[in-house]
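Run: sequence + nicotinamide-adenine-dinucleotide -> complex structure.
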Amino acid sequence: MFDLAGKVAVVTGASSGLGADSARAYAKSGANVALLARRKDRLDELAAELSDMGVKAFPVQCDVTDETQVKNAIASVIKEFGRIDILLNNAGAAVRGGVHTLTEEEWDKSMNINVKGMFLVSKYVIPHMMEQKYGKVVNISSVNARVADKLDVFIRHGYNASKSAVLGLSLGMAASYGKYNITVNSIGPGLFESEMTKDTLFKSEEFLKGYSAHCPMDRPGKRGELTGTVLYLSSDASSYVTGQYIIVDGGTSLV
Ligand SMILES: NC(=O)c1ccc[n+]([C@@H]2O[C@H](COP(=O)([O-])OP(=O)(O)OC[C@H]3O[C@@H](n4cnc5c(N)ncnc54)[C@H](O)[C@@H]3O)[C@@H](O)[C@H]2O)c1
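>> structure
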């Protein structure tokens, strides 16, 4: 049920962190993977690593906020592989600040990368999935779609808003495309070490202490602990699961 042999997956924001980890997990499960992000050198390195696992990896430089780049990137993936079975909408950015400090530009950055980028990539992938009557879309939201924190280091109102918008987008897509045998689900990660968090949240003793105090499992997520959920929602193991939001946070949002 979890086997992805012969499937084609597109991963956005694949150049680091949870996106790169997920691309590795797809490759280990047998999928060919198209890697989309802005840093081509990183994508080339990862593609070489995945090719060594015996699958095809296709690096494509793409800024997900630019419609022309997205359109061309997806067209090139279709040309390369002929189909797209899985879309992991993972690219994201965490801009810090509350409504009293955020500039319009910072607000737009959150919404553009985290929401508009997901819309644009889906816009060009979904028609192929509709045609082939098969598709698994996984949208990376955040536990911060539903919970916030009052610590200064954690104030990210644009991020909160954008990650809640991801849930709304996922619900709409799930409702519309189920009849095409396309499932659309979202994931809400808690705290994981990545480029996004290593120099901010992971550098704040106060935040880490607070997180662990709230977390029933007493620790942040380890690299690789998100990929089981990504694989579940990307494979036929979840063939009758759609419109769901799975939180992977060691229970932190419960207490
Ligand atoms: N790390 C965490 O604790 C955590 C928690 C909750 C949610 N998330 C979400 O997980 C996803 C991955 O984040 P991460 O933690 O691995 O951080 P990361 O910074 O390592 O990865 C984000 C990726 O998105 C890419 N990206 C950013 N803007 C882009 C653009 N315009 N076009 C193309 N690619 C772009 C980056 O280059 C990078 O590869 C994000 O959506 C993030 O919001 C992370």
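>> summary
The two ends are 33 Å apart (CA to CA). Residues 12-13, 15-19, 37-38, 63-65, 90-94, 113, 117, 140, 142, 189, 191-192, 194-197 surround nicotinamide-adenine-dinucleotide (CB under 6 Å).
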